[in-house]
Design goal:
By secondary structure, this protein is of the alpha+beta class. The chain contains two helices and nine strands; from the N terminus they run ααβββββββββ.
Length: 215
């Protein structure tokens, strides 16, 4: 591409020189008009002067365009490639990266209800003259709590409680993470599985199984 840039530069210089020559000729013609007698000769000279000025303007514009093309054109041959000095070593730039913060949501740990243990006090021993009466130990009663089956809403935008499976009526908007008590009802309507639940406010209805997590 170097030869093309040289050609553009030469053409730009030639056109610029032609524009200067045409402008100089027009200026000389203008100076000579005043020396001519008024008549056809002066009109012809004025016409020639205008044409020369017009030609000079057009050539000047073309020269500016060529100079602009030459200035904007890429000239890879003009770029001086410098070789690295012998023995020079290049150290790669180390970029420190900040470790990403662990955004894994923590899961709720289910609370296991422990049954209280009732321990009886040691029975007193009655010592008599004839014999010692020791009552038999009594069994320790234990209280066992039956956990209630529940589920948690697993939807970032919340979940609507509906009166019937597949219904469009909205009884309550349940927030993400709300705990629901599971009831016995479970149906499939239009390929969507529904679960009957009871909310913390006491409302009973149906929710889509895809948006809850069983405990």
């Amino acid at each position: 591409m170097a030869w093309l840039n040289i050609v553009i530069l030469v053409l730009a210089i030639i056109v610029a020189m032609a524009a200067l020559v045409s402008a100089a000729g027009a200026w000389l013609t203008r100076s000579a008009i005043s020396n001519q007698p008024y008549g056809v000769g002066r009109q012809e000279s004025r016409k020639v002067m205008l044409i020369a000025f017009l030609r000079a303007a057009i050539l000047g514009i073309v020269a500016l365009i060529l100079f602009g093309v030459y200035g904007l054109s890429a000239r890879p041959d003009d770029v001086v490639l410098t070789d690295p000095e012998p023995g020079a070593t290049f150290e790669p730039e180390l970029t420190a990266t900040t470790p990403a913060t662990d955004m894994t949501p923590t899961t709720d740990v289910p609370i296991v209800a422990t049954s209280p243990t009732v321990t009886s006090l040691p029975s007193p021993t009655v010592t008599g003259a004839a014999a010692t009466a020791t009552p038999s130990p009594t069994e320790t009663p234990t209280i066992t709590l039956t956990p209630v089956p529940s589920a948690v809403v697993n939807s970032e935008v919340g979940l609507y409680l509906r009166p019937e499976p597949g219904s469009s009526v909205e009884l309550e908007l349940l927030a993400n993470g709300a705990v629901l008590e599971l009831l016995e009802g479970r149906q499939t309507v239009d390929d969507v599985e529904w679960q009957e639940v009871r909310t913390a406010s006491g409302n009973e209805g149906w929710v889509a199984v895809d948006f809850i997590t069983y405990q």
